[in-house]
Design a protein that fits this description.
The complex is a heterodimer of chains A (87) and B (330).
Chain A (H helix, E strand, L loop, with lengths): L6 H5 L3 E2 L1 H8 L3 H9 L6 E2 L6 E4 H16 L4 H7 L5
Antiparallel strand pairs in A: 1-3, 2-3
Chain B lengths: L5 H10 L9 H20 L3 E4 L2 E4 L1 H4 L6 H11 L6 E2 L1 H9 L3 H17 L3 E5 L6 H6 L4 E5 L1 H16 L6 H12 L3 H4 L2 H17 L1 H6 L12 H12 L20 E4 L7 H14 L4 E5 L4 E5 L2 E11 L3 E9 L4
Antiparallel strand pairs in B: 1-2, 2-3, 4-5, 6-10, 7-8, 8-9, 9-10
Helix pairs in contact in B: 1-2, 1-6, 2-4, 2-5, 2-6, 2-9, 4-6
The chains are: A mainly alpha (87), B alpha+beta (330).
Protein name (chain A): MerR family transcriptional regulator
GO molecular function, one term (chain A): DNA-binding transcription factor activity
Organism (chain A): Paenibacillus glacialis
Chain lengths: 87, 330
């Protein structure tokens, strides 16, 4: 049986799944998926396993930063620019 | 952030928006599924011993020394029956979902108390109480409202695990089955997403032992779950199935309500109309968030999304107002 990880175990691990990011940041799945597809959230993907893995600390910080910029009224292209990305 | 047990997470979703005073058909279906969730929770926590396809409860769980009252409310009801507490998973789930109304009520109180203690559930005046007819008649209605953040966290986690490629945990396999059996799938997934959910459930059925055992079990009662919708969806999903797979049909149960709220002024503009609606809803303790403004606005009331459209009802004089229509993911 494969059980869901407890919050304590998620908070102590280096990599997390998108579902765990949803739990950590109270964000919507579709929002995080959109950010990922737009290249705003870097991830790793092992060949044999399709699950995307995100660096927990780095990604949570980035999501919180994106949320703040959105609250400040920035558009997605502006946020991407602020994150030093090509639009 | 607390780690919730399976039955608690599911109950938060199942009780949201349900009447806390009356035993409606929708609530009865939710409670039956919640009782089944308790069995699955014990099963996942290795609370059963398995021998020759029969599951027997461990002694410590059977002896009612467990601190969670909601578990006790279900488990004690089952092991008190004379024919012995032993059977396969199907047997346990069927038994749990067939508790009497009196026992379901007792279980509802135990579960709602446990969630209220964690500030995850509260009772608020019912949305239908804001309706012109109910409001003017002074009818008291009360609904459960789940904590909005926790509700979003649980529902979005399910969506993430099942819609994302890769690994699916046992909790999510159980949640999918519970959502299907309680007729809630359509509240969380759009039509196109449901086709993906169906495909993923087929994959899980082939690859995960728990899914193989659980997915073919049905505890829902056809009449209660709107058989018409069921048949309609059946035709859609047949398209997506292949060879050896089985179809998982998603029956649907309407849980939100269509409400009419009269507006103060005749021919008021869309903003005034919307403000009148928000004022009425907030005076009843609802949390309202405007998602889209316009002549047809979209608003989120507590945890459910509604379209607010101009409407009138004919009495001795026509009464102008706004009709709130439940909106599902498209």
């Amino acid at each position: 049986m494969s059980r869901q990880r407890s919050m304590e175990s998620i908070l102590s691990s280096e990599f997390v799944s998108i579902g765990e990011l949803v739990r950590l940041t109270d964000s919507r799945y579709s929002t995080l998926k959109f950010y990922t597809e737009e290249g705003m959230l870097p991830f790793e993907q092992a060949e044999e396993n399709l699950t995307r893995r995100y660096n927990r600390e780095e990604t949570v910080t980035r999501i919180l930063l994106i949320k703040k910029m959105k609250a400040d009224g920035l558009s997605i292209p502006q946020i991407k620019e602020a994150l030093n990305m090509d639009t | 952030m607390t780690d919730l047990k399976l039955a608690q997470s599911f109950s938060m979703m199942a009780l949201n928006g349900q009447s806390s005073i009356h035993m409606t058909t929708v609530k009865k279906v939710a409670l039956r599924s919640m009782a089944a969730a308790v069995i699955l929770e014990v099963y996942l926590d290795s609370g059963f011993t398995e021998a020759e396809d029969k599951l027997t409860l461990h002694k410590d769980i059977r002896d009612a020394s467990h601190p969670t009252l909601y578990r006790e409310a279900v488990i004690q009801s089952l092991i008190h029956k004379k024919d012995g507490a032993q059977g396969d998973l199907r047997w346990w789930l069927k038994r749990a979902s067939n508790l009497s109304n009196k026992k379901l009520k007792k279980f509802e109180h135990a579960m709602s108390d446990s969630l209220k203690e964690l500030s995850l559930l509260e009772e608020i005046p019912g949305l239908l109480g804001c309706d012109l007819y109910y409001d003017s008649a002074g009818v008291e209605m009360k609904d459960y409202r789940s904590n909005i953040d926790a509700y979003t966290r649980v529902s979005e986690n399910i969506r993430a695990e099942i819609l994302e490629d890769g690994f699916v945990t046992d909790e999510i396999i159980c949640m999918l089955w519970l959502l299907r059996e309680s007729g809630c799938m359509h509240d969380f997934f759009s039509r196109s997403e449901l086709e993906k959910v169906n495909a993923r459930m087929n994959e899980l059925y082939q690859s995960a032992l728990l899914a193989k055992a659980l997915f073919p079990i049905q505890i829902h009662h056809g009449i209660e779950l709107g058989i018409k919708q069921f048949l309609h969806l059946k035709t859609r999903f047949v398209k997506t199935s292949i060879g050896s797979t089985i179809n998982f049909f998603f029956p649907m149960l309407e849980r939100s309500k269509a409400v009419f709220i009269e507006t103060e002024a005749w021919f008021s503009n869309p903003n005034q109309r919307l403000n009148d609606v928000i004022t009425r809803l907030e005076s009843y303790g609802h949390e309202v968030k405007v998602i889209e403004k316009g002549s047809f606005s979209t608003i989120k009331i507590d945890n459910l999304v509604y379209d607010a459209m101009p409407h009138y009802v004919m009495m001795k004089v026509p009464i102008q107002g706004v009709r709130l229509m439940p909106k599902r993911p498209l």
